[in-house]
Amino acid sequence: MSMGKRLSAEFLGTFWLVLGGCGSAVLAAKFGGDSNPLGIGFLGVALAFGLTVVTGAYAFGHISGAHFNPAVSVGLWAGGRFQSRDIPLYVVAQVLGAIVAAFLLYYIASGNPDFDLATKGLAANGFGDGSPGHYDIWSALIIEVVL
CB of 116 within 8 A of CB of 92? Predict the structure, then answer.
């Protein structure tokens, strides 16, 4: 497969992953507040991420390998399954796909008068106040390393 087709597949797959996964977290996780039965919650967001990866892999896996994440590309290289010369190109395509999806998601979310980027963010996570359970940095580090 040509490099142009592979990079286009990585761009589109990463775009799809960010729009579907992060979009579910921003637009539908607690849509209308915690008491709204239509909110999808953490399980719904997890399923949205999983389903976007699966559909992206089916759509683009035969073209690019369906990495959709620089960490996956580097991991495949470390395992001897990916050429190091292709990593920078894949990473650029993946980052650009994510940026375009984030801009589109921001535009969609901004259509809600209650949306405020500073307080609601775009599905960012982390530790402390950035964690739904307010876990500290050491808990975040341990779970990242172990999983």
Answer: no
* Cα–Cα distance list, 84 to 27, 79, 87 (Å): 37, 11, 5
List all residues 6 or more positions away from 49 whose beta carbon is below 8 Å from its beta carbon: 17, 20, 21, 24
Q: What predicted TM-score, i.e. pTM, was given to this entire model? A: 0.86
Q: Phi/psi zone of residue 82: left (φ > 0), alpha (ψ -120 to 50 degrees), beta?
A: beta
Q: Which residues contact 36 (CB under 8 A, 6 or more apart)?
A: 30
Let me know: does 1 contact 47? Beta carbons within 8 Å: no
Q: Which residues of the chain have pLDDT under 70?
A: 31-37
CB atoms within 10 A of CB 147: 5
